[in-house]
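Lab notebook, bench 4. The sequencing result for the construct came back, and we need a structural model before the next group meeting so we can plan mutations. Quick request posted to the team channel:

Model the 3D structure of this chain.
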Amino acid sequence: MSNRAAQITPKATGIVAAGGQGTRLGIAGGKQLLELADKPIVAWSIDALASAELIQDIVVVCDPDRVGEYAQVITAKVSTKKPLNFVAGGETREESVMAGLLSVDKAADIVAIHDGARPLLEGRHVDSAIQALIEKDGLDGVVLGNPAVDTLKRVKGDLILDTPDRDQYWHAQTPQIFWKKQLFAAYKQAREEGYQGTDDASYCENSGGKVGMVLGSRNNLKITTTEDIDFAESLLTKTGESPS
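Done. Here's the predicted structure in token form:
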């Protein structure tokens, strides 16, 4: 274990980004409250993240016009007894994550940013990722993911340009887990520079941070299509609870 890990007992807080608009599914007002096996998608995602032993509490970042609605509906549906705090997000994911970070308890050392539309997360993978962050010197963050297994093609229009070596590529998932101070500084720098990333890790990378990759489950998909809904519902109905 690193000296850093030996010197501290870190508090880890989950931040669930639940303000998406669900445009690809054509759901007005977002997909997070869409019922999946008798429970909103975001409630499954919260319970999955909360099932990690090292996550102590959770901040849920919502559509600013629906915070009260989310708090009422979700609180009644989640199974976890860990503290939940519902806060208003912003117009972009960057603004929403910043709102979540500003709402995290000052005592928290680590934050785990999770998509509200990933209900099949396994808590044991979250714990493994947090441990990796704590134990490996020099890391600012870690990302759950899986190695690419399909052949990849770089395409322009409908023309294949080349075939990159897939051994160098992983599919990134969430949660993406960071030392809180480093992620906050990365987002602050991005705002000053006008940089816009595609995930939390890209902001950390842009600021010169070092981010590791940790193996997760291929079932930890993000609900974006009707096929995803069918797949997730079949698994959740079969198990009766979030994977852990």
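The first strand starts at residue 12 and ends at 18.
Will bring this to the meeting.
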